[in-house]
Write a structure and sequence with these properties.
The structure is a single chain. The protein has helices at 14-29, 47-60, 74-78, and strands at residues 2-8, 33-36, 39-43, 66-72. Helices cover 35% and strands 23% of the residues. It starts with a strand and ends in a 23-residue tail after the last helix. The radius of gyration is 14 Å and the shape is flat. It is built from 3 helices and 4 strands; from the N terminus they run βαββαβα. Strands 2-3-1-4 form a 4-stranded antiparallel beta sheet. It has 101 residues and is α+β, with helices and mostly antiparallel strands. It has a single domain (2-75), classed as 2-Layer Sandwich (Alpha-Beta Plaits), CATH 3.30.70.240. Its EC number is 3.1.-.-. Belongs to the CRISPR-associated endoribonuclease Cas2 protein family. Homodimer, forms a heterotetramer with a Cas1 homodimer. This is CRISPR-associated endoribonuclease Cas2.
Length: 101
């Protein structure tokens, strides 16, 4: 299954931008890949892993932010269609980096 993370973090001052960038970096550390600027995905096979990741995302979210999580079955994710512009590059990494939970 794929865990899709959509988030909205304010960027109206330097401190907010710093927190938003730290949150994005943390998502990558947790094995997520960026689909769009505020949309990240990660394959999750075990419900226990999903619970740990959701708990981490909840704890580390800046006070003024919000996230929405979608759990997508592989059938839905396998049928996605990506349309790229001529100069766009598409790289997808499905294996998470080393993670200590």
């Amino acid at each position: 299954m794929m865990l899709l993370v959509c988030f909205d973090l304010p960027r109206n001052n330097k401190e907010c931008r710093k927190q938003a960038n730290q949150y994005r970096k943390r998502l990558v550390e947790l094995g997520f890949t960026m689909k769009q600027f505020s949309l990240y995905e990660r394959e999750i096979r075990k419900s226990s892993t999903r619970k740990k990741v959701v708990d981490i995302l909840r704890e580390e979210l800046p006070d003024t932010g919000s996230i929405t999580l979608y759990l997508l079955p592989n059938e839905v994710n396998d049928r996605q269609i990506t349309i790229l512009g001529e100069k766009a590059s598409k790289t997808t990494v499905r294996t998470p980096q080393f993670i200590v939970i």
